[in-house]
Specification:
By secondary structure, the chain is α+β, with helices and mostly antiparallel strands. The protein is built from 16 helices and 33 strands. Helices cover about 30% and strands about 30% of the residues. The strands form eight sheets. Strands 26, 27, 28, 29, 30, 31, 32 and 33 form an eight-stranded antiparallel sheet that branches. The longest helix has 20 residues.
Length: about 575
């Protein structure tokens, strides 16, 4: 009886496996399915056709093998499963040439009853490890924890902690909400079960996380209370943050965060990085899923599992040429070897996080290493930052520069830049003492409108004067909120009108001493004026004659103005 296995996605392979046959997946060209990804080991995992069907086996890979988002050492594969190795995702399709194969069965670990493969296909069976499974009926009785986790909970109970619920999985290590019974204190516990399949390096990194993070006492870094070793278990007791990760916060919005929410979170993260860098520590994995945001909107940096103490290199557990971090947020120098990264790699991660907040996606989505390097050299797609203040776009572009020397050189420098952007948005000088207050008091649109006067000539119109960036900021608000109306501008040498429909310029007409400029050329000429007055009136647009996106036009106009070109 043969099994026809199709793997499709980042890489593609089609294999016919007789009973006893296997295929390997890895970075090596000698692998049956070669995946060009530095996070994939040379021999990463295998798929074997055995007596119970197709089994995926992890081959001691450095970064682990995942099935449907769950890290596994062995897992029974069926059609529709999603296998992840490194940053590559592979969709599994399986066909057998013997339908009786579906009648094969396994036994439930809990009740001992038979589980047919037809039941597996319905997706209600829980695989614990190896060929140990729990049937749907027993799963319903213990829906939150696998048997391995129940063992962990038992050990923690012996240690004086009552586990209340599983909060999440950080990397491959679960995090639990627990109560320290002696003090009636609610804490978070990150627990790593010890077994033969847990590498010494993984245990070292787990201990390193606790040692590094325990040195950092700061309002924007999750506090470590204790690290302990118990029977078959190493665990960290730490501060419990009631809230959600920044990644979940972005996904919950369905698109992107508001500018002020992004600035506030970015400022908190930059402040945490400044504190860590001042103690010689770099994080090396700054990304939205490693940032917790509490109900008070205070952001805290978590998971120093890849942290590096620059002042004590004897603690280094990073091999030469080893890549650590998450590809979409990693600085180019980390791709060549994590040992070479310094605190400016965290500045890159901060820029990638700000970009994700405002674009709704990471700056780079390449999964192949050579494609990622090419994308990083070109820089992120800034046109996705529609309606974002230009000085914030500029800061993000600087943070994401491929050359570390071209980025802000310290987290403090990034903080000063964020304060300057806050000043521009609110019209009030921002300092380290008041910046958070300014970012909390009003929403973005109210901040922008507070400096403009209502026009008595037309109801709901806005009038203002500009001498620097006031007109640009107003147009960013118009685009961001997809406003419709007519913009009239009077400058020393010109008079012009631009017609906007849902945040896009659809027509323009500008009268100058030399003549009349229309549509895109006219709108760009308006933007280059150094000073003047403007008025915006919400009203129905005229017939579309052009389609000019405001953000790219603003970027061009500011560049030409800064270069002194007409």
């Amino acid at each position: 009886m043969a099994a026809v296995v199709t793997l499709a996605g980042t890489a593609y392979g089609n294999f016919i496996l007789e009973r006893g046959d296997s295929v390997t997946i890895g970075r090596s060209l000698q692998a049956d399915l070669s995946v060009d990804d530095l996070r994939v080991s040379r021999r990463h995992c295998s798929i074997e056709h055995g007596p119970h069907g197709l089994t995926l086996k992890n081959l001691r890979s450095a970064n682990g093998t995942y099935v449907n988002g769950q890290r596994v050492e062995t897992a029974l594969l069926r059609s529709g499963d999603r296998v992840t190795v490194g940053s590559a995702e592979l969709q599994v399709k399986v066909d057998y040439d013997d339908e009786d194969h579906l009648d094969n069965s396994h036994l439930c670990e809990s009740c001992g009853r038979s589980i047919s493969l037809m039941t597996f296909a319905e997706g209600e069976v829980v695989q614990l490890e190896g060929s140990r499974f729990v049937c749907p009926q027993c799963q319903a009785m213990t829906p939150e924890f696998s048997l391995v986790e129940l063992d962990v909970i038992g050990v923690l109970a012996e240690e004086g902690f009552e586990v209340l619920e599983k909060l999440s999985v950080s990397g491959v290590v679960p995090i639990y909400r627990a109560r320290k019974t002696a003090l009636d204190q609610i804490v978070a516990i990150k627990a790593l079960p010890l077994s033969a399949i847990v590498s010494r390096k993984k245990i070292s990194r787990f201990a390193q996380e606790a040692k590094v993070q325990a040195r950092l006492r700061h309002r924007n870094i999750v506090s470590i209370y204790d690290v302990r070793k118990a029977r078959d278990l190493v665990y960290i007791v730490m501060e419990l943050i009631e809230g959600e990760t920044l990644l979940h916060m972005i996904e919950r919005t369905g698109s992107r965060l508001a500018v002020k929410d992004t600035l506030r979170t970015g400022y908190h993260v930059a402040r945490a990085l400044a504190h860590a860098a001042g103690r010689g520590i770099i994080h090396r994995d700054v990304k939205p899923s490693n940032i917790m945001v509490g109900p008070d909107r205070e952001a805290k940096l978590i998971d120093f599992g890849l942290g590096k103490n620059l002042r004590d290199m004897t603690l280094s557990i990073t091999s030469d040429g080893e890549t650590l971090g998450t590809l979409g947020y990693m600085a180019p120098e980390q791709l060549g070897g994590a040992k070479e990264a310094d605190h400016r790699a965290d500045i890159y991660g901060l820029g990638a996080t700000l970009y994700h907040c405002l674009a709704g996606r990471p700056p780079f989505d390449s999964v192949a290493l050579h494609e990622l390097r090419e994308a990083q050299a070109k820089g992120p797609a800034l046109d996705l930052l529609t309606g974002v203040p230009l000085n914030l776009v500029t800061l993000i572009a600087r943070c994401l520069h491929a050359d570390p020397e071209r980025r802000p050189q310290t987290a403090e420098e990034a903080m000063r830049a964020l304060e300057s952007i806050t000043s521009d948005i609110t019209g009030i000088d921002a300092t380290p003492q008041n910046v958070e207050f300014l970012l909390r008091i009003q929403d973005e649109e109210a901040d922008l409108l507070q400096t403009w006067r209502s026009s008595n000539k037309r109801s709901s119109s806005f009038m203002g004067s500009f001498s620097e960036n006031e007109l640009i900021e107003f147009l960013q608000m118009v685009e961001f909120n997809q406003k419709t109306g007519t913009l009239r501008v009077t400058a020393p040498m010109i008079r012009g009108t631009a017609y906007v429909a849902r945040g896009v310029v659809v027509a323009a007409e500008v009268r100058t001493a030399e003549g009349v400029l229309t549509d895109e050329a006219g709108f760009l000429h308006l933007l280059r004026q150094p000073r003047g007055d403007f008025e915006f009136t919400p009203e129905s647009p005229i017939r579309m004659r052009c389609r000019v996106r405001i953000s790219p036009a603003l970027l061009d106009a500011v560049r030409l103005r800064d270069e002194g070109r007409p």
